[in-house]
Amino acid sequence: MITVNQLTKRYGQHAAVDAVTFDAKPGRVTGFLGPNGAGKSTCMRMMCGLTPPTSGTATILGRSYADLPNPGRHVGVLLDAQAQHAGRTGREILTLGALTLGLPRTRVDELLEVVGLTQVEAKRRLRDYSLGMRQRLGIAHALLGDPQVLVLDEPANGLDPAGIRWMRSLLRGFADQGGTVLLSSHLLHEIQVIADDLVVIGRGRIVAEGAKDDLLAAAGTTVRSTDNARLAKALQDNGIDVTQGFGSLSVQVTPERVGRIALEHQIVLTELGSTSSTGLEEMFLQLTAADAREGAAA
Amino acid sequence: MSTIASAATPHAGTRLPSRLAEAATTPIPFLRLLKVELRKLVDTRAGRWLLITIGALTLVVIGILLFTGKPNEGKGFGDFIAGTVGPQAVLLPILGILTVTSEWSQRTGLVTFTLEPRRLRVGLAKFLAALLVGFAAIIVGVAFAAVGTGLGALVRGSNPSWALSAGAFFGMFLAQAVGIAMGVGFGMLLRNTPGAIVAYFFLPTLWSIVSSISFMKTAGEWLDTNKTLAPVFDGSMSGEQWAHFLVSTLVWAVLPLAVGMWRMTRAEVKSA
């Protein structure tokens, strides 16, 4: 359980994180979504006691991070897979972690296996690791202490498709055991597949928050038919606002409602569904358009 | 069937780490932090090569003392020990600097301070680790000096004096400890390897230059560590020299350490 309350970080006049409030609940994967520079990393550093907040609080398992005894046994943190000594071997990095946490050396071998790093790879120095291997090592490091909470900043970065799939099922399994997962990403599709809850942040502020399904339902329905003009009129006659797309119509009602109206008017539908497949991306761009650097272009 | 099963449990086949027996409620003991910091001093090539260099330079100095000069001049145990002090006085503080600054230059601080958020304890563990390694280096230097003295008698036919004053012996540890403390302190203040090394060598030496100006002479006597530490190494301290030593230690070691530790506990630890 992570509870963030009115968390704020100012650098001079600039508010990098502005009164951010949300919960990440046990048994669920919470996706922390936002464009570059939106304040995701600053927020996560404040949760882990690395950056002192200007105001507000963040607690993990009911305590502020600094008050957790041996925090690595409660919270697994991966903020930057590149932030390790380039001259240390993967095994040595995990060994230092295990020593600090007071865990047996066998735990290092176990975690290497869990993340799929071979003994040979573990003997190589970090500077010879690909980004994907560094992420796997970082996830192994985060899992060392058998934590109940995971805080991961862009963990899918640099992973190949198979790696992303592996991580997705690993995090799902972790949450199904009752663990809390907070992971940030700008990879929208990745978050869409894995997250149960979403926190969307733009320019330091939360722009949307809630269960993924609820947020996506708000994204509406997309429909295509053999006669879009007649369908649009039928929908409008039922008091539904219709937005014209490229050969499609978008409405803010359920697919079922659209289907029934089409059936009534005997219009053949060629496509009908919630906007969810592209919905998150649309929503994300919409919600953060005013905040993103590309705001003017979008 | 199997596709349905895997769809129902998407993580089937992905292994999770085994659960650990007890949830940890005890803080990390200081000794464990110390052990980890000691290990971090030697588990990289940079750290190992620094230690190897200290050892190698000590051997070179002993070789030079052994094979130059007249057989019975400067071949005593105390002379050899005095020879080993030089390279160590230069390099041990760098060890102290690196133990701190590498957390920032290599960005490992992100992990270190996440595992132990009470950063003061990490800072103390680093200081103590650098001191312990430094003392080990001194003891190895003394052993080398003993071998050098023995070889002098064998090879050069010297008739060495094995006398060593307790003052000089303990003074050596004390003076090197001050150097290491300065290194750690400067490292914590500046959190940048080249900056800390330059500052460490330049600032106290600045007083040598400043004090050559007549009216600044007194300031040099009190603040130039090159001058105030010399009698500590010799083990011949007068009351006034103790005062000079204590003041310069306060200014160049205790103060940077205290302010550095304070800054380190407050600094933002970032990855970039």
Summarize this, please?
The complex is a heterodimer of chains A (298) and B (272). Chain A is an alpha/beta fold.
Give a verbal description of the structure.
The complex is a heterodimer of chains A (298) and B (272). Chain A has helices spanning 40-47, 90-101, 106-114, 119-122, 131-143, 161-176, 188-194, 212-217, 228-237, 255-264, 276-289; strands at 2-11, 14-24, 29-33, 55-60, 63-64, 75-78, 149-153, 180-185, 197-202, 205-211, 221-225, 242-244, 249-251, 269-274. Chain A is an alpha/beta fold and 298 residues long. Chain A has two domains: 2-210, P-loop containing nucleotide triphosphate hydrolases (Rossmann fold), CATH 3.40.50.300; 220-274, Alpha-Beta Plaits, CATH 3.30.70. A six-stranded mixed beta sheet of chain A has the order 6-7-8-3-9-10, with helices on both faces. Chain A has a four-stranded antiparallel beta sheet with strand order 2-1-4-5. Chain A has a four-stranded antiparallel beta sheet with strand order 12-13-11-14, with helices on both faces. The longest helix of chain A is centred in the middle third of the chain and has 16 residues, at 161-176. Chain B has 272 residues and is an all-alpha fold. In chain B, 75% of the residues lie in helices and 0% in strands. Chain B is globular and about 75 Å long. The model of chain B is unreliable at 1-11 (pLDDT under 50).
